Amino acid sequence: MVTHFPHSSASAEVNADTHPDPLRVAMGVYVTVHGHFYQPPRENPYLDAIERQPSAAPFHDWNERIHHECYRPNAFARILNDQGELVGLVNNFEYISFNIGPTLMSWLERHDVETYQRILAADRQSCDRLQGHGNAIAQVYNHIILPLANERDKHTQIRWGKADFYSRFGRDPEGMWLAETAVDADTVKALVAEGIRFIVLAPSQAQRCRLIPHDNEAAHADWREVGGSQIDPTQPYRCFVPGGDRQRDYLDIFFYDGPISRDMGFNEVLSSSQHFAGRIGQAVRGDRASQLISAATDGETFGHHKAGREKAVAYAVAVEFPRRGWTVTNYAHYLSICPPTWEVELKPVTAWSCSHGIDRWQDDCGCGGGGLWHQKWRRPLRDSLDWLRDRLVTIYEEVGAQLFGDPWSARDNYIQVIRDRTPENIAEFFAAHQDHPLTEAERVDALRLLEMQRHSLLMYTSCGWFFEEISRPEGVQILRYAARAIELAADVTGIQLEPEFLRRLSAAPSNVETYQDGADLYHQLVVSSQITHNQVAAHYAISSLFTAYAKQQRIYCYTAHQVDYQLQRIGALTLAVGQVVLTSDITQERADLMLAVLHLGGWDFHCCIQTFPGRRLYSQMKQDIFDSLQQASAAHVILAMSRAFGDQSYSLQTLFAEERHRIMRLLTQETLTRLDQLYTQVYRDNYGVLMAFQRDELDPPQELKVAAEIAITHRAMGAVRSLERDTGDFSHLNLQQCLGYVADLDAIATEANSFRCDLRLPQAKQVIEQLVIRTLWHLFHSAEADVADEMIPWLEHLIQVGDRLHLGLSLDRAQELYLKSFNTQLLPQLKQWRQAGLEPPHPLPAWSLAHIGRLLELGRTLAIDVPFWLEHIDQLESIAFQDHVEVEQLSQGRIVDPEVG
């Protein structure tokens, strides 16, 4: 149960003449596995948040689903024994080369800080192991196809990618991943100018290569044609900028092994680490003193595209490769010990996923096609966005010159604001870039211009062209960015770019009859997603009837300041009137609004929003509306609201999806409660009948079985809610009472299983998983040893009842917590106890040998490899307390190569 694994190249230098350290001297076989981790941006441009995506169910959205299947499992990759028990954890990011798109890293930082920090730590640990060269490399900011970008956008994308990388990893990147590995001569020149040392390309992108000529050799040294993917990928190459200084104007390039990389993505090479190592071994050449075998693929291959593959990768990099004497490294480290001796010339314009250069992102080339569907929409879409970009450039330069000392320098440094939108950081940004002290209104316009430029870059995200149809979510998303950029331009200048943009977009034919063309698609799917301040205020108003908002309330990327708010109820009617000031956290623009919302009962709402008319008029309108409520007539209230606000109104449908769904559930709760009571009565009245069917092994009538499932589910959720309520404060935990709830759940499970009921308890699953983690943390960090005697059985019963209820509990995080606590607390404490004959000092719990035995039994319940430790508890000190324990020692030979096919 260790989380650190041996590495063949981590051994100390012995004799540099006879046993050179492969970390310092290029000697032997080196292996680099590169994962390109990326997700297209999915945030609503108006909310700066991802809305629920039903296709990702049971998860909230696709980022969350892929994170659950890939990103977190790779940060906590599991090594298992032959019983499927957890032996140890490998942070794959510590051993593989990787890039993670900045937009994806922002999502990870916001939604799972533990995984995010583990990725950062992996880079630091790889730096420590590999002579200061970390596994992480940067990426062009938002996956734009650089050869199709104008010169200024190329540099901004590289600069934003570098700055984002530095803000996270605390170092400048040595390498950069190009979106789709798309490259041309201008892209190479831009990368060199921005200080990037190396890139990774597909072997098909090389045209010819030769030994780098020395000064005394002819400049026309023989070139070797390698245009058919024939370049040797076991060494780095140097690409010189034409006409530049050959001493400094160059970019080093690694070409990944094409066949191995394809097999990783599309065959079963990763079904086990032995298969993986065997496939890599086929590429090893016996005539080389040093060689690099590198493979590159989408990082999502490790767990998302191919379930469980992260386990094979973990075992390979931590055990299998070192066992074969191979050094696991990264590109930057290998470059430091084996600089290029060959130079390369690239084909004019290429990418790794298009055999036609880069036509996949601009023409109907057939790549990514969907059967009989065409991609004639690609060129008009590209041309429409290029036209829009150029018009936005003119607006930015003309207006930006009045606000910034250097508008383009301000855009390049705007990444610092994107990373940190605190008022202090924004003020520092303006102090550095403003042409003169800006007024509040000028600051808003300046931020609008910068956001306009940010969205003009986002609208080129490559995913919009990658697939077969413009109406896919990726195509719609880039058009949403375009729409936001158009709107921001109009806010600043009043210029209306949308009509001409739509005229051009109408030339992009859709394969789906519903949408006809890009313009029709824009009207149906893009315009409907646009959000105004009034809609945000309506969302606030309607949801305020169900939520007690604070004076300052965050609503997505807006801050709502409640200036005044009053609510009254008469009979079935609920009325609220108020004043709220909305401030955008993105552009700092403010809207002072008056609101009124009437709930007529059920699903009927009538909400009105208007610009705040001033204190006197607001007070009079407010009084008139509340006076109308005294007549207890919805018609009178709606009439009074219409007089004050006009005819425009909003309903429940206006709310953003997350809040709308929450209120819908609240509104249906009363009905569901009545139905639960009805079904429970039916179940009780017919319990004997159900037992008779069960005794005779007959299927009961469907109506009675449904009643039983609903009634038993209702009881189970009642017990779970009681359990959740009474375990809120562990300092006053009544274990006996909680054991009673678990006993109730156990009886419910027996009853449900006897009638073969299918209980749907997703909330129970979440509650029990969280309770297991909280209890385990309390057990290791806060509980006294005598309390542990009670908590351990309770925790075991909790897990067992989850199994009996068929909840499909995920114990991954509980296992990770147990493993960490075992290594940092139990083993060191036992060592101290046995050496000194004394109990460990405060504040750690004073575990006796018997307590440790019970904790080991708990590990067995958590499916952790503890039987060996239980059998040899008296010998723990002699075998366990080393800085690094061989994985084979840990399970005494029982560890197995994971078969994940």
Characterization of the model:
With 901 residues, this protein is an alpha/beta fold. Among the domains are: 33-213 and 223-350, 7-stranded beta/alpha barrel; 360-529, no CATH class; 533-651, no CATH class. The chain contains 32 helices and 21 strands. Strands 8-12-11-15-9-10 form a six-stranded mixed beta sheet, covered by helices on one side. A five-stranded antiparallel beta sheet has the order 17-18-19-20-21, with helices on both faces. The chain starts with 27 loop residues before the first strand and ends in a 10-residue tail after the last helix.
Tell me briefly what this model is:
The chain has 901 residues and is an alpha/beta fold. The protein contains 32 helices and 21 strands.
Helix content: 40-55%
Rg from C-alpha positions?
A: 32 Å
**Can you count the helices?**
32
Main sheet attributes: strand count, strand direction, barrel closure:
6 strands, mixed
Low-confidence stretches: 1-17, 837-844, 876-895
* Second rung of CATH, namely the architecture of the domain at 33-213 and 223-350: Alpha-Beta Barrel
CATH secondary-structure class of the domain at 33-213 and 223-350 = Alpha Beta
Q: How many β-strands, per DSSP? A: 21
Alpha-beta content class: alpha/beta
Mean pLDDT: 89
Strand order of the largest sheet: 8-12-11-15-9-10
**What fold name goes in the CATH topology slot of the domain at 33-213 and 223-350?**
7-stranded beta/alpha barrel
Terminal CA distance: 25 Å
Q: Provide the β-strand percentage band.
A: 5-15%
Looking at the structure, what is the overall shape?
globular
